[in-house]
Write a structure and sequence with these properties.
about 280 residues; binds hypoxanthine; 5-stranded mixed barrel; alpha/beta; Rossmann fold
Length: about 280
């Protein structure tokens, strides 16, 4: 069995061959219902996940399952339209493999997006929130296993997992577009069941503003390798028990589609300003 590093090199080599001489500066991961952002790129080249060795395919509904290389304005980016999740049966190490490949391809910054439930009562459905931090309650960690020392240390620091500078840039960009971008702490759970109202009360008590089933593994691995991270959640629904209604995946996807314009404008304004 090849090492993770060898696997990432093999995957990056295949991607590189397909995308020609493009040297991506920023990697982006699009969450549930947010995949349409990939259409904004110019000079697009698409690589289906199935063509990339060792890549964890995304089976979740609302996730396209392709890597898209292209330009956002003049910034070369790679967008992952669709991600793998723990609840699909992948290990945290495998879920974050695409982040390793993006790093191997040379990105200096990673933008993670996700659909999340709103725990903080000041949020409303459709709000965009910049993650200030996370609480990893997935019961696992993507760095479990042998450490690749030239990627990063065995015990990486996580005290600024989500770049303060990038959050400030994102807030500025949102203000210029006429809306407020609050910050929040994201609780990462494995899913796939949504939370119970008691779990949401517990998450609120421990300081979480948002809840979701992704993002933490990628953010941990990005920090391990020294990448700067910006993460933006779309509050697709209020978390369980906040409103007297059930949570439904179709609603999650629909809210993602409704915020598409604002979300796209924000990313278009921020991503070219990320300098690593
Ligand atoms: N909980 C967990 N993950 C989610 C939610 C939620 O309420 N909404 C979108 N992703």
């Amino acid at each position: 069995m090849s090492s993770l590093r060898e696997q990432a090199a093999a995957a990056a080599a295949v991607v590189r061959r397909q995308i020609g001489g493009v040297e991506p500066a920023v990697g982006m991961v699009l969450g549930s219902g947010l995949g349409a952002f990939a259409d904004e790129l110019t000079a697009r080249v698409e690589v289906p996940y199935g063509d990339i060795p060792h890549w964890p395919g995304s089976t979740a509904i609302g996730h396209a399952g392709k890597l898209v290389s292209g330009l956002l304005g003049t910034t070369p980016v790679i967008v992952l339209a669709g991600r793998a999740h723990l609840y699909e049966g992948y290990s945290a190490r495998r879920v974050s493999f695409p982040t390793r490949v993006l790093h191997t391809l040379g990105i200096h910054s990673l933008v993670l997006t996700n659909a999340a439930g709103g725990i903080n009562l000041s949020y409303s459905q459709g709000a965009l929130v910049a993650l200030s931090d996370h609480i990893n309650l997935q019961g696992t960690n993507p760095l479990i296993g042998p450490n690749e020392d030239d990627w990063g240390p065995r015990f990486p620091d996580m005290s600024e997992a989500y770049s303060k500078e990038y959050r400030a840039l994102a807030k500025e960009a949102a203000a210029a577009l006429g809306f407020t971008l609050p910050e929040g702490v994201y609780a990462a759970l494995s899913g796939p069941s949504y939370e119970t109202p008691a779990e949401i009360r517990y998450l609120r008590a421990i300081g979480a503003d948002l809840v979701g089933m992704s993002t933490a593994p990628e953010a941990i691995v990005a920090n391990h390798m020294g990448l700067k991270v910006l993460a933006i959640s779309c509050v697709t629904n209020m978390a369980a028990g906040v409103l007297d209604q059930k949570i439904d995946h179709e609603e999650v996807l629909e809210t993602g589609r409704q915020v598409r314009t604002r979300f796209t404008e924000l990313l278009k304004a921020v991503v070219p300003r990320l300098r690593g």
